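User: Can you predict the 3D structure for this chain?
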Amino acid sequence: MVSRQIQALIHRSKSAAHLLQLHSPVVKTGLDHNPNFVSDYINLASSISIEFAKLVFGYVPICPPLFAWNSIIRVYAKSSVPIESVRFFSELHRVGLKGDNFTYPFVVKACGRCGMVGGGGMLQCLIMKSGFDSDRYIGNEVFRMYADCGEVGIARKVFEEMPVRDVVSWSSLIAGYVACNYPLEALRVFREMKLANENPNSVTLVSLLTACTRLHDISIGKSIHCYIIVHPIEIDVALGTALVEMYSKCGHVEKAFHMFNSMSEKNLQSWTIMICGLADHGRGNDSILLFNHMEQAGLVPDSMAFSAILSACSHLGLLSEGRQFFNQMVRTYNIEPTMEHYGCLVDLLGRAGLVEEAYEIIKNMPMEPNSVILRSFLGACRNHNIVFTLDDNFRKVLTSESHLGANYVLAANVSSVSGCWGDAADMRVSMKQKGVIKVPGCSWVDSGGGW
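Assistant: Here is the predicted structure, written as structure tokens:
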């Protein structure tokens, strides 16, 4: 009876301090020897603090049983430091225990998140030696790990060697091709999936819509939307957001907005994608209005949301609004500006002809400006015929990106405007000596060839 009361109190805990207070009765009643309880205890601790979960694991008497190892490995595999999951797995083997069919999926997932393709390969060998290679769940995680590491060819080979495949297997392979920027291959795998009489789920369809977005193929995107309606498949937040992004990126912003408004539930990503879509189609005022509605709906904008609205202000030349949003981000929401945020602000000021103010932003940035920001600034100097002498920061761009002829041409033009004819001539000579040319601009048109 006492142990049940303690378990009930632990489930109602909201802080690490409260759990620490309950740890003494846990030990006294012997609950720390109960396999099911300890696993649950570690999971509860991880929801409050991952470091506290590690502390709880350390309190398990003598050598923790496998279930406790599996719990801490799972916690770290899903955390921001997945490498710790791999470390705990190594420690598990050091103490003489062997992983089971619950251990390996989490460690493999951690390798994928860390990009440890070598470690993942060794794990695959260990899985085969342990006789778990026929486990479908583990197999799905193995080829997903290879896809996460960019080794989509190996992932495909593992997939083809699987004795049994399910919708998760097919969905993971499709997602892997999309993540590795092979959207056409993802659609071809979907065709194979249909021939194998395997029906897609919402996760599959999200990946397929992302593939359509990458290809800017509205016809396939519409056919997938029709498939969702006909079968019917519930449009959850992830699927609805994918549809909004597909329609927006394929040039159908009104359909994207209609889809957005029809969603019964939206998350911050849904709002951010719609704000970007409106801005990309020249509807800056609408994107600002939508951002304000998002705040009124109770959502707290994050760094990505502010990147979207600042980019909208930059592209549409909304100077006062852009300044307002940048200040709001820093002062109201205490968000540390990233390189992207500074880039939007510099571009916004440059477009407005406020080159000196833009240069002050660049000089006072807490990080080294990247080539995008510097090119944006030089472009503003050229467009507004502002006299500017290249300093060391701008010369670094030419050194770090010596293969881009556009940098030399831009720097030469700015030097010419500034009257530094010698510098301009040096740029032209340097281009010839290095064999660098400026790639001409180009456009492309979809001929409707299909896939």
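The chain has 26 helices and no strands. The two ends are 65 Å apart (CA to CA).
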